[in-house]
Amino acid sequence: MPFILVVPSSVTPPTPTATGWPSLEHFYVDLAKQIGQYSRTTVAALAPGGEPGRWVKLDAFIDDEDGREKFGGGYVYVRSGAQTGSARRIRTTGFEGPYGALGLTRVLSVAGVPTNLAADVSVEVTKPLPVRAVGLTRGLVDLVNEALARIWTEIRIEITGNGTSLYSAADGDIPDWLVTNVQIDGIYIRPRGLATTVPFARSTIVPTITVNGSAITLETGAIYGTTETFQLKAFVMADKLVYNGSSWGYTATGSEGLTNDTDQAAVPVKWVTPIAMVKAIQYLRRMIAQNELLSLAEKKAKLAEIEETLHPATWAVAAYDVIETLLPRPQVAPVAALAESASDGRWCAWTEVATVPVTGLP
Amino acid sequence: MPTLLAYTEAIAYGLDDLEVFTAGGGDASSFSSVSLVNADTNASTHNYDGRWAFNATQGLQRSTRTGTHVLAPGSLGIAPIWTPPNSNDRIDLTRFFPRFETGPYTASMSYRKIVNQTLQMIVVPDRLSIAIVPGQQEYSLQPWQKWLDREERFGWPDIVLSNGTHVAQARLLEPGPGGTIGIPADWRRPHLRLDADAPYLEIETPFVTGTTGTIFLRVLRPSNTWVFLGGAWSESVNDGLANDTDQARPSVEDVRKIGTWIAVDTLAKRGVTGANGRWSDKVAAAKAEAMSVKWFDRTQVAAIEQQPQQPAGVAA
């Protein structure tokens, strides 16, 4: 059963401050473990000498036998200390096993001065994708947000009546991301005269979203007084409704998604990972296909390697199952066939025939 | 390490061109030796005509005088005059080339020249230390400009495993994590830049601010450029060995093979015929054996074959 999150209609609702949902960190760590290699550990101090900022020494990685290519193509992400948020690529032959040191393609610095990481700084090492984007390479965070952008979350928007049956986004009555009828699925009311402890029940009156250019209006079909509160059942993309570390709110248009490690989305991790994996595998395939340094034979070999190691079909099935059976989805009423009036030949009103679900990944 | 004397003996003995005498004494124009004594009064006095004579103990190069082998006391005439040899001085007699191109024979092809030319054609691995300068992309290689004249000097040959796999070796080493021992730095794309007579090491990815330490450039240097002279190993000023006690790194056998080729090639250019036929008939085999030397610098093969004919000095 999908979880239902109840939030007021304003963009920055003060209550509730529901916590305990998965954070961005939960999402990308799970994705990292599925798509390749992942480790979180702490840095050991480097003795003075050599090139500052070039090396990350991890005692947990010490191995006297491993070759220099072991972590080639991987990435380091700094989670704490003065260089928090820095992401670097590991040199192709940049691993010094006896020292557990990773050589980077670009030095770490503080205020522009090349500087080694301090001891006990927390870092994450991932492969084949970075935690956050490095150069043209997208990060795990980007792929998590891509998945969230394809997941509907069901919510109840509490609206205080205004004495009419019309509520507009321009007036702040409804969120501005409600742009289509597909996104709403009924109004829930508390029978008049009953205590506020009585649960809301579904109204038989069907609301509609009316779109007139940029003007969006919710037509409730009934008049609610200024002392009445009703709930609008709606569907919002999981990258739109975000907990930013202190409260839930709607991200601004163009800035959807989770940004900080502590940001939360109202979706379980295990629902997001299959969809994120599908997007990640698509991305890896694109990177290979667009890599002009590879010959056709090399591309084919690498693509075959993805088939063998990541099992795209399995993840596609898992994502499909999540979308089809677990995720809430708006129900779309199909366009009914027009029936000609028997009396004057004019078109009759629409007739609902059946509902079909909105399909999953584009 | 082998000495000039060891190299010379290997080449000369290989050509059957060296006889060593211990002087019993002598004067300004001769030397005596029990090895020269011949009780056969009918023996020829011309057996040692046309030879080069070298007092190895005193480093004096001369030639023998015609018909001056005196059988009974065992003496041999020398020209031009020299410092009289002392008892037990070593006297070398050779036919094809003088031991040293000194004294009256400065323009002559000599065994010392052959050895030094041979050493020039054998490369030895070496590592040049260069102090890191943060931000700098060009490092002057002026101290080694005499021989760092081609990109082939950079790097060491691949290591070949028993299964035939070639393992490339890095050309440049940099300080490792925390300034530890040198680790491969070829990812900085080092290469040689020649600016007329001035060679530079160019590094496309320079070291960042705050870097300390030394980079090591692996090279193959001609073995005549790093020699043991005067009691110490050093960069050679005169391109090779000077005295019999001076040392170089290649093995005696490697020098013998290549030195023999140079010697035979020189004799062939003279149009000389040896006891077993023409020297020109032996050049191809000598060259093949020379090029079997592992560290043979093939970039210099043309230099030898285009070498002008050396003055013959005393014809063999």
Explain this structure.
The complex is a heterodimer of chains A (362) and B (316). Chain A is of the alpha+beta class and 362 residues long. Chain A is built from five helices and 21 strands. In chain A, strands 2-9-4-5-6-3 form a six-stranded antiparallel sheet. In chain A, strands 1-10-16-12-13 form a five-stranded mixed sheet, with no helix packed on it. Chain A has a three-stranded antiparallel sheet with strand order 11-15-14, with no helix packed on it. Chain A is elongated and about 75 Å long. The two termini of chain A are 24 Å apart. Chain B is of the alpha+beta class and 316 residues long. Chain B is built from five helices and 20 strands. A seven-stranded antiparallel sheet of chain B has the order 1-7-4-5-6-3-2, with no helix packed on it. A four-stranded antiparallel sheet of chain B has the order 8-16-12-13. A three-stranded antiparallel sheet of chain B has the order 9-15-14, with no helix packed on it. In chain B, helix 3 (252-269) packs antiparallel against helix 4 (283-290). Mean pLDDT of chain B is 88; it is low at 308-316. The A-B interface holds A 46-55, 57, 68, 91-94, 96, 99, 101, 103, 107, 113-114 and B 174-180, 183-184, 187, 207-213.
Topology:
The complex is a heterodimer of chains A (362) and B (316).
Chain A: E1 5-8, H1 24-35, E2 37-42, E3 55-57, E4 75-78, E5 87-96, E6 101-104, E7 109-110, E8 113-114, E9 122-127, H2 140-148, E10 152-160, E11 166-168, E12 184-189, E13 201-202, E14 208-212, E15 215-219, E16 229-237, E17 241-243, E18 248-250, E19 264-265, H3 269-289, H4 296-310, H5 312-326, E20 331-332, E21 356-357
Parallel strand pairs in A: 1-10
Antiparallel strand pairs in A: 2-9, 3-6, 4-5, 4-9, 5-6, 7-8, 10-16, 11-15, 12-13, 12-16, 14-15, 17-18, 17-19, 20-21
Helix pairs in contact in A: 1-2, 1-3, 2-3, 3-4, 3-5
Chain B: H1 4-14, E1 19-22, E2 25-27, E3 30-32, E4 52-55, E5 60-64, E6 75-79, E7 90-94, H2 111-121, E8 123-131, E9 138-140, E10 159-160, E11 166-167, E12 172-175, E13 182-184, E14 190-195, E15 198-203, E16 214-222, E17 226-229, E18 232-235, H3 252-269, E19 273-274, E20 277-278, H4 283-290, H5 301-305
Helix pairs in contact in B: 1-2, 1-3, 2-3, 3-4
